[in-house]
Amino acid sequence: MNSSIDTNSLLLQLRAMARDAGIPSTDKPSSELTLGADRIEFSKVLENSVQQVNGRSIEATQLRESFEAGNPNVELADVMIAAQKARISFEALTQVRNKMVAAYKEIMSMPL
């Protein structure tokens, strides 16, 4: 069984998720991302993604509560769309976490 990770595929998936999360992309090669004054830290990107997923969840909850309270300005369709956005965002974040754990396990199992 071959459990190697295709790094190019993983990088493309992460870039697509970052774009969907509203994180601006850069066209610089990865070697330039870690050098210079405009250094992008992975932890900050991950933190921003978690905050955006949390924000979508809070927004969906607030819309649901407003609809349940009888607010005439809140449509059922808006509530359902916000709930689906929150669910999909959470699932995407979960997939990123799963990929990171798999990559970590693969690195840890490499012989020295």
UniProtKB/TrEMBL annotation:
GO biological process terms, semicolon-separated: bacterial-type flagellum-dependent cell motility
Major location category of this protein: other
Subcellular location as annotated: Bacterial flagellum basal body
Domain of life (superkingdom): Bacteria
Recorded GO CC terms: bacterial-type flagellum basal body
Protein keywords: Bacterial flagellum, Cell projection, Cilium, Flagellum
GO molecular function terms noted in the UniProt entry: cytoskeletal motor activity; structural molecule activity
InterPro entries: FliE
Family to which this protein belongs: Belongs to the FliE family.
Full protein name: Flagellar hook-basal body complex protein FliE
Organism: Granulosicoccus antarcticus IMCC3135
